[in-house]
């Protein structure tokens, strides 16, 4: 049955928007009349193929999950819950997606099967957990766990953004200062400095070369930057390329430890969420491998899954990896030995809930003064490069005057 997005007015003259299924425009008009609405505008929803490539914001997904969980807990049928949310959301793409989901459920598909049609809007881990909830009859419960997980992701991203505001501002200021100094300020001093009948100090010669490069070789910098960007895009689409880049990220002096903790945090949260939803460890690790966000850790997870299938324990497999801390390994070992792996996995994710924010704060607390010192060093270098030949000239003049 075709779906239409509509705009209508109620008896108070207020504008109402929504999505409704109707066989034809006449049935749509009748549906509006039954709702005491006067149809203003209606258009068929976009083709399903286009909608399958559309993304939705994480905040919209959280609100959607909260609405569906609350509705199911209150005994509201899933189709009614989906229709109600479609009428309340302002996101027209989401409206159209929900209309398609309703249409598929009405045709006999399950909720998870309908969600699976839109992989960009509903990630694989989301659909897998919904499927597990349907299989166990605990859909409302797993939705609540999903909400907690999505809110954790949202909070983590917000923390990173908040902590990175000041360092980003300082970094941009450094770039602006270098550009202005090398493009406008230093070139004005170069004729003066080269007119001195003295041997220029090494810092001054270096400054002149850099300033000349900024003036005449800026296009080289653009080509190099564009080349590196294209190289990254091309190699990042290949497994070996991603592995190489991710290895490099883990070896960075400041960001490396944070990148590792973020990847391990995702591993802990994804594994705990999927396993506690009723999905077996091998299937859980297949999904986690795809969404952990670091090819190095993904490779370790793949190896672990293969060894588990041959009879090894998760603890014994992960212990071979140099990336998993001993505390985390010990907690997993206890969980496997006591048969409470689901609760110990949640404890591991709780551990990273504290560890990751601390690592973020620590990294940026180190980065901020480092950037300030770096900017001060650049200004000092430029100042010395300009004043050293002047000092050398005046010292020579003074010495010559003293000899006379």
Quick take:
By secondary structure, the protein is mainly α.
Kindly describe this structure.
This protein is mainly alpha-helical. Among the domains are: 1-44; 52-122, Receptor-associated Protein (Up-down Bundle); 257-357, Up-down Bundle (Receptor-associated Protein). Helices cover 76% and strands 5% of the residues. It has a three-stranded antiparallel β-sheet with strand order 2-1-3, with helices on both faces. Helix 3 packs antiparallel against helix 8, helix 12 packs antiparallel against helix 13 (281-291) and helix 16 runs antiparallel to helix 17. It is extended and about 100 Å long. The protein starts with a strand and ends with a helix. 26% of the residues are buried.
């Amino acid at each position: 049955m075709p779906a239409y997005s509509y705009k209508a007015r109620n008896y108070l003259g207020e504008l109402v928007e929504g999505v409704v299924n109707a066989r034809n425009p006449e049935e749509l008009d009748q549906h509006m009349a039954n709702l005491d609405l006067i149809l203003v505008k209606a258009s068929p929803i976009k083709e399903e193929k286009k909608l399958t490539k559309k993304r939705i914001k994480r905040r919209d997904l959280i609100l959607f999950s909260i609405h569906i969980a609350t509705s199911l807990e209150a005994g509201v049928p899933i189709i009614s819950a989906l229709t109600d949310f479609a009428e309340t959301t302002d996101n027209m793409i989401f409206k159209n997606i929900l209309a398609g989901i309703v249409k598929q459920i009405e045709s006999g598909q399950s909720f998870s099967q309908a969600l699976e049609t839109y992989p960009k809007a509903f990630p694989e881990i989301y659909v897998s957990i919904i499927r597990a909830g349907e299989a166990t009859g605990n859909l409302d419960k797993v939705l609540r766990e999903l909400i907690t997980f999505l809110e954790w992701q949202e909070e983590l991203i917000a923390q990173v953004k908040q902590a990175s505001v000041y360092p980003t501002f300082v970094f941009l200021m450094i770039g602006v200062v270098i550009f202005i100094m090398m493009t406008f300020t230093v070139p004005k001093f170069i004729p003066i400095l080269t007119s001195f009948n003295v041997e220029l100090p090494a810092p001054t010669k270096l400054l002149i070369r850099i300033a000349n490069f900024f003036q005449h070789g800026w296009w080289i910098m653009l080509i190099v930057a564009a080349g590196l960007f294209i190289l990254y895009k091309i190699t990042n689409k290949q497994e070996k390329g991603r592995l190489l880049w991710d290895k490099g990220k883990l070896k960075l002096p400041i960001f490396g430890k944070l990148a590792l903790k973020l990847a391990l945090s995702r591993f802990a949260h994804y594994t705990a969420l999927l396993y506690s939803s009723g999905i077996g460890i091998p299937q859980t690790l297949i999904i986690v491998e795809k969404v952990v966000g670091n090819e190095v850790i993904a490779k370790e997870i793949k190896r672990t899954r293969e060894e588990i299938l041959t009879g090894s324990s998760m603890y014994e497999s992960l212990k071979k990896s140099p990336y998993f801390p001993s505390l985390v390994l010990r907690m997993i070992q206890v969980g496997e030995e006591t048969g409470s792996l689901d609760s110990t996995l949640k404890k591991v994710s709780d551990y990273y809930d504290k560890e990751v924010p601390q690592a973020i704060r620590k990294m940026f607390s180190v980065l901020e003064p480092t950037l300030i010192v770096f900017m001060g060093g650049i200004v000092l270098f430029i100042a010395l490069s300009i004043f050293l030949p002047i000092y050398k000239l005046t010292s020579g003049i003074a010495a010559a005057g003293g000899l006379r």
